[in-house]
User: Which sequence fits this backbone?
């Protein structure tokens, strides 16, 4: 018999509801008060607090709430409320995302078979609905008690990380110790953000290292945020504290589309598109010996001087990051003449190539600012495989089908001229400032080679050399030879640059480019 409308639920139904709530409360308590207290003492939020902070208020929709761990002899009698990970969907700035948040209070957030199944369930939902996946990582790695099943769980996650790569954005926050398998899933995602002082990434911990190599290292010096954002280049951004990392994710998403079929979101722009850039005239002078801050150039050109630099502390000789031009996201790749004279080396090539491919996956047009003398010479670079690494940049630019605009601000020499998205490498439009110089190499080096005989046979070699260097500069060290041959589309007034770039990207907005059939390209790695 059905209840009349408005009457209280039957006692039986009330008991069922109470039992459900009791189970839910237990799951939500995770590893219990004591372990949560310990987590907070370490300056960390709990798994659920992180989700609540990350998502728009009240938008979290949990999945797999009552999943329990897979039973085996070692796990009999072990309690793991929520199975060590909280999963579901929600919104960020009104746009849907999927999220998993590892719960270190439950078996150290270790990954067992069912824990992995909770994660792969939301990854599959994200792929089917075309939404970003955000992983909040805080895990001791493979759950020792589940043996090969936990390795298999990692395999299922890695597999999805790879097949959904470039289809939907995947973002990893590292918010605690991430050991063993726990680092490889983040490494397969698009961006890694770490919290300083409370997060670590390593394949094997300090104790194992000590026993194998006798090296003495701390967690921080082995795999802390500074190590991975300054030395290894494994992570992209570092912040102080969980909240700052989660704010960082929200900010990063403002530049990204929901998936590879969509365009990135356009935002309201309050910075006039026609704003003049007179400041550039003081900043970038024709004097090649006077370095300037490329960051200042970027700030001057983009909307409201807002630039989200990616990997700002690693391979600082190249600058990459996101900005807006008249409200539309662009990826900026720029040489940094203040560090190693802006030369390209192994790390800079890797950093730029990866960023270019990230932009291309997610339909973000690329602006390249060029001031480069060449690839860094030396045995260290050659032995390290600069040929293989530099080739990644050439490959990535050529492969990218998004709108690509290049601006040569000062020097553009040799192989680096090509590696910085020249016309022949697929740039749609190339501009140069009157201060630009395009050549095979700088005048000093060129004169030594081309005029070696004249200099050697001269009565006054120093004077002859100076004369010939000046002659070379006058003839070749300018943008007009390249412009005369069509390699540069226009030499533009510096003060009009912002407007020009906005007009040019607007012109390229609907660009389509088809490539020959292939399974996938074979980028040199
Ligand atoms: C199951 C684990 C666990 C694990 C920790 N715990 N690691 N449970 N499997 N791998 C449990 C602990 O027993 C403890 O339970 C709780 O988690 C918290 O751990 P503590 O050691 O007390 O915490 P802390 O002192 O903060 O140290 C954290 C840690 C350390 C540095 C992560 O626990 C650690 O080194 N764990 C082992 C890391 C590891 O080697 N993982 C396997 C990697 S191999 P109680 O009940 O006391 O709270 C791997 C292979 C995959 O991942 C490879 C795929 C490519």
Assistant:
């Amino acid at each position: 018999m059905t209840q009349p409308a408005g009457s209280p639920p039957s006692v039986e139904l009330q008991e069922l509801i109470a039992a459900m709530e009791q189970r839910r409360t237990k799951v939500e308590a995770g590893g219990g008060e004591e372990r949560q207290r310990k987590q907070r003492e370490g300056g960390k939020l709990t798994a659920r607090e992180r989700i609540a902070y990350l998502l728009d208020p009240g938008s979290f929709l949990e999945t797999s709430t009552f999943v329990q761990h897979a039973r085996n002899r070692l796990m009999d009698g072990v309690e793991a409320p929520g199975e060590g990970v909280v999963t579901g969907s929600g919104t960020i700035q009104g746009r849907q995302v999927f999220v998993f948040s590892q719960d270190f209070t439950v078996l150290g957030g270790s990954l067992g078979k069912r824990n992995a199944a909770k994660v792969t369930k939301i990854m599959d939902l994200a792929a089917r609905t075309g939404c970003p996946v955000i992983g909040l990582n805080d895990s001791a790695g493979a759950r020792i008690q589940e043996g090969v099943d936990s390795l298999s769980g990692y395999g299922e996650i890695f597999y999805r990380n790879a097949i959904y790569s470039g289809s939907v954005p995947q973002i990893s926050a590292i918010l605690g110790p991430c050991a063993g398998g726990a680092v490889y899933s983040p490494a397969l995602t698009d961006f890694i953000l770490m919290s300083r002082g409370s997060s670590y990434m390593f394949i094997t911990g300090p104790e194992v290292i000590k026993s194998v190599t006798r090296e003495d290292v701390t967690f921080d010096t082995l795999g802390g945020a500074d190590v991975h954002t300054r030395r290894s280049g494994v992570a992209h951004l570092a912040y102080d504290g969980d909240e700052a990392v989660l704010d960082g994710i929200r900010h990063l998403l403002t530049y990204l589309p929901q998936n590879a079929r969509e365009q990135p979101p356009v935002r309201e722009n309050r910075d006039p598109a026609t704003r003049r850039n007179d400041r550039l005239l003081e900043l970038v002078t024709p004097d090649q010996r006077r370095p300037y801050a490329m960051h200042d150039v970027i700030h001057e050109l983009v909307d409201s001087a807002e630039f989200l630099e990616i990997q700002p502390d690693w391979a600082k000789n190249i600058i990459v990051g996101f900005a807006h031009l008249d409200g539309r996201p662009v990826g900026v790749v720029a040489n940094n003449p203040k560090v190693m004279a802006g030369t390209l080396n192994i790390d800079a090539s890797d950093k730029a190539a990866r960023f270019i491919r990230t932009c291309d996956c997610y339909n973000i047009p690329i602006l390249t600012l060029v001031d480069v003398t060449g690839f860094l010479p030396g045995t260290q670079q050659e032995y390290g495989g600069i040929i293989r690494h530099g080739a990644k940049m050439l490959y990535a630019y050529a492969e990218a089908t998004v709108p690509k605009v290049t601006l040569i601000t000062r020097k553009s020499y040799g192989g680096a001229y090509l590696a910085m998205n020249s016309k022949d490498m697929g740039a749609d439009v190339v501009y140069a400032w009157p201060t630009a110089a395009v050549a095979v190499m700088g005048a000093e080096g060129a004169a030594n080679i081309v005029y070696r005989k004249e200099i050697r046979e001269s009565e006054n070699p120093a004077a002859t050399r100076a004369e010939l260097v000046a002659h070379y500069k006058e003839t070749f060290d300018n943008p007009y030879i390249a412009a005369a041959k069509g390699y540069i589309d226009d030499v533009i007034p510096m003060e009009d640059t912002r407007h020009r770039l906005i007009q040019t990207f607007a012109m390229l907005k609907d660009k389509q480019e088809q490539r020959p059939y292939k399974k996938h390209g074979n980028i040199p790695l």
